[in-house]
Amino acid sequence: MLLSKYSFGIGDRFAHQGKSLLQALVDAKERGFDITAVWNKSHREHQIVGTEPADVRTEADNAVAQLKWNAPYHVDADHIGLENVDLFIDASDFFTIDVADFISKSADPQDVDDFVQKHKSLCGTLQIDRLDEPVEVTEDQIVNTGRNFLSAVKRAEKIYRQIENKKGRDSFITEISMDETTQPQSPIEMLFILAAIADHNIPAQTIAPKFTGSFYKGIDYVGDPQEFGRQFEQMLAVISYAVEHFSLPKNLKLSVHSGSDKFSIYPVINKALKKFDAGLHIKTAGTTWLEELIGLAIAGSDGLQMAKNIYFQALERFDELAAPYASVINIQKDKLPSTETVKAWTSEQFATALKHDLSCPNYDPNFRQLLHIAYKIAAEIKTDYLNALQKYEKIVALCVTENIYRRHIEPVFI
Hints:
Elements: E1 6-10, H1 18-30, E2 36-42, H2 43-49, H3 53-67, E3 73-80, E4 94-98, H4 109-119, E5 124-126, E6 135-137, H5 139-167, E7 173-177, H6 187-199, E8 206-208, H7 225-246, E9 253-256, H8 266-276, E10 280-283, H9 288-299, H10 301-316, H11 318-322, H12 339-343, H13 347-354, H14 365-372, H15 375-380, H16 382-391, H17 393-413
Parallel strand pairs: 1-2, 1-10, 2-3, 3-4, 4-7, 7-8, 8-9, 9-10
Antiparallel strand pairs: 5-6
């Protein structure tokens, strides 16, 4: 099973927007851009919302049938580990193997020695096509990469074999995720990480590194977009080199996680993809739930009141909601609007505070981030919440489709 050149991670917390999400890819296809839909949902999200991996498969299949989508699509077991991968085996055909927790864990010294011996021929001046300058590789760099990343790659192999033994080698797509860690990987580290992946015979089709800068949930990229662009291009060049020299899958490509709303880096990603004629996988599923809230707020009446009530509870339960996301949010708690303030808001005020429009003076990134992590509250009133989505389906669907197509797909790919 091969992943196409361009693929887009979609999905939603409550399995209600499959059709409106896919509509964005239909719109792109009508403009001549073929982008594969990949529905993704993590084990943590399933636990909070009370769903199962099979629900995501059902959502995807139903949306495909309703829109008569005749192109490839996949269901991603997002950020799985050895302890939960079996839950996703039947429903998924795309597996994001998350080994970030195993980065910098002590590798077996003999494994490191063997790794260095196998790859030390690359020491010295290394010419990688499309890099402005040759790369100087030292044996110490190979040693350090082995020490810091071999345990993670071995863990990835163990998870991969678990999937392979149950599904067969050619019936799923493998992504390796190393993004949820503190330090970005350098291009040289990525080169030898890919060498290790090849050594362990893992046919990875995408890899998600930790890039420079901060990828907080639901808000724009924090960092220097030009520096990100330089690193992104270096990673593309390294992947191209690794594919040729390490016998990795020909369609291996970068994956950008927490890609939702990273508006300031979309232009440099677009430019790099065209410059290198490279593929991309980007994940954006998390903000679909915010578009639902925006739609409910715009609808007014009981829709607006439900959105407000979710915020009121989120404000009261801030510490509880923030704890699991501490490393991927940047909320200034003292700047959150008070309950009394939000009670007086109109539909427009609530929606514009939540909608990520940097040109709007009412946009509030703290408000947006808190609601981003507050879907647990909607899950606790799930029946009422889903009834509201059904009642205001047309308004919500328009918000979801426009967000994905106009504000994500167009600037990244088109």
